[in-house]
Amino acid sequence: MASSDAKPKSVSRAKKWSEEIENLYRFQQAGYRDETEYKQVKQVSTVDRWPETGYVKKLQRRDNTFYYYNKQRECNDKEVHKVKIYAY
């Protein structure tokens, strides 16, 4: 796993939807690169997830407001290309 001050080495765009892309979409909607950055900024060890699907359930933005997400897919096919995939 990345260290606490890790910076991404490269970035690419998503080409097609997957469960990983769905979760990245939710983190990026809330203003974070990915789960690593969220845990680093918010100083949490776990992220709330839906038990049925494993998708992110709730995220706290940097301004301390919350985003709540559905159990089903929220990243439409037309939004997939906007998701950035960071490599550490």
Overview of this structure, please?
By secondary structure, the chain is of the alpha+beta class. It has one domain (16-87). The chain is built from two helices and five strands. The protein has helices at residues 19-29, 35-42, and strands spanning 10-13, 48-49, 56-60, 66-68, 84-87. Strands 2-3-4 form a three-stranded antiparallel beta sheet, covered by helices on one side. A two-stranded antiparallel sheet has the order 1-5. The longest helix has 11 residues, at 19-29. The mean pLDDT is 93. Pfam families: Meiosis_expr. Belongs to the MEIG1 family. InterPro entries: Meiosis-expressed_gene_1. This is Meiosis expressed gene 1 protein homolog. Essential for spermiogenesis.
Q: Work out the strand percent.
A: 15-25%
DSSP strand count: 5
**Gyration radius, rounded:** 13 Å
Helix content: 10-25%
- Taking pLDDT < 50 over at least 5 consecutive residues as the criterion, the unreliable ranges are none
Report the span from N to C terminus. Answer: 9 Å
What summary fits the major beta sheet?
A: 3 strands, antiparallel
Count of discrete alpha- or pi-helical segments spanning 4 or more residues: 2
The SSE order reads EHHEEEE
Strand order of the largest sheet: 2-3-4
Mean pLDDT: 93
What is the number of independent domains? 1
What is the oligomer described by this structure?
Answer: single chain
Structural class: alpha+beta
Shape: globular
